[in-house]
Amino acid sequence: MAVTRTFSIIKPDATRRNLTGAVTQMLEEAGLRVVASKRIHMSREQAEGFYAVHSERPFFGELVEFMMSEPVVVQVLEGEDAVTRNRDIMGATNPAEAAEGTIRKTHALSIGENTVHGSDSDENAKIEIDFFFDASEIVG
Ligand code: RTP
Ligand code: MG
């Protein structure tokens, strides 16, 4: 397996509950290394731009409002097969369907307030990393 990168967001429901460290620890224990990290408060422009792919979905407005509601932590994660490894430790979108030991099973509150985002392909990982980070901010 090649060492690759993925993009992660620790969402407002987690920063609000002071779970930044707990979530990051689960990512690290899954074999991922945090090679970039910053706490930001997303603007409407950022939230709508980042989730533009979901703009026609019924939950889009709610999703954008949630992601702007409080700070988030955006991260670049590096590891073997990072996208899949991260999706595995995150668990299913709906925490009621997430496997034991996953971040969402452990911490998520609902399908909307589901604690983390993770890229779903290598191609999207690159787009999402570039959306939030300059190359100079990533230290592998
Ligand atoms: P993510 O993109 O956040 O890593 O999550 P995902 O791939 O598991 O889920 P996706 O289908 O891409 O949806 C993006 C986010 O939208 C919210 N959502 N709400 N109310 C709903 O039915 C609903 N469905 C999705 C979730 O916060 C999901 O993570
Ligand atoms: Mg997704």
TrEMBL record:
GO terms for molecular function: ATP binding; metal ion binding; nucleoside diphosphate kinase activity. Coiled coil: none annotated. It is found in: Cytoplasm. GO terms for biological process: CTP biosynthetic process; GTP biosynthetic process; UTP biosynthetic process. The keyword Zinc-finger does not apply. The keyword Transmembrane does not apply. It comes from the Bacteria. Its cofactor is Mg(2+). Its EC number is 2.7.4.6. Gene3D superfamilies: Nucleoside diphosphate kinase-like domain. ATP binds at K11, F59, R87, T93, R104, N114. The active site is at H117 (pros-phosphohistidine intermediate). It holds the Pfam family NDK. GO terms for cellular component: cytoplasm. InterPro entries: NDK-like_dom, NDK-like_dom_sf, Nucleoside_diP_kinase. It catalyses: a ribonucleoside 5'-diphosphate + ATP = a ribonucleoside 5'-triphosphate + ADP; a 2'-deoxyribonucleoside 5'-diphosphate + ATP = a 2'-deoxyribonucleoside 5'-triphosphate + ADP. Residues 3-140 form the Nucleoside diphosphate kinase-like domain. Keywords: ATP-binding, Cytoplasm, Kinase, Magnesium, Metal-binding, Nucleotide metabolism, Nucleotide-binding, Phosphoprotein, Transferase. Homotetramer. HAMAP family: NDP_kinase. Belongs to the NDK family. NCBIfam families: PRK00668.1 (NF001908). Major role in the synthesis of nucleoside triphosphates other than ATP. The ATP gamma phosphate is transferred to the NDP beta phosphate via a ping-pong mechanism, using a phosphorylated active-site intermediate. This is Nucleoside diphosphate kinase. The lineage of its organism: Bacteria, Pseudomonadati, Pseudomonadota, Alphaproteobacteria, Sphingomonadales.
